[in-house]
Predict the structure.
Amino acid sequence: MTVRRLAPAAVALACFVLLTALVVTGATTSLDTHVAEWATGPATASPGLADVLRWWQEISQPRWGYAAVSLLALGLALVGRLAWAAAVAAIATMVAAWVGVAALKTLLGRTRPEAGEVLAQSHGLSFPSGHSAGVVVATLVLLWLLRGVVSPGALRATAAAAAAFAALTWVDRVMLGQHYPTDVLGGILIGIAWCTAVLVYADRVTGASAAPARGRPRRR
């Protein structure tokens, strides 16, 4: 069962490794550059759109998503709706993802698109996209925490809202010229690979559900 649940992580990691090889060898450079130049056209021509994209860039910073989900985990644990081990696992997963993505950027050393230099000034390197990975990790951890805490309908609604937020963030990174499309795809893939694998392991450590066990009948 655990092996089957790890399949999405394995597939995402394999795709990330392949994509990384293509990026490092320059196989995607031409396509990435053309798409970046085309995608930044509307924001370059419209200062108002550029302002909206820069605003979205700020509110979708990984630190805000990680902080919000961390506070939720701690709050649920404090009121007894979540096991403390699950809360710690959730926070550790996000912190490790943040550090890991930064390390990958440094290791791979890809610079940001030139097309976005006039739209926004972002520091750091480009591949994989930290915003893209961050929104994936925060979403998956959030949904993992809420299993057994909210109704299935509420969980589906949360998933839909989070997916919409994530999609807008991915589009924003390319339209604002801060990332190539392959940066965004790389962030998505590494976020899925890391978060899925860690949360499967966390389930084994904390139990089948993140929610604390209550009301178990005593054996006679």
Residues 2-206 form one domain.
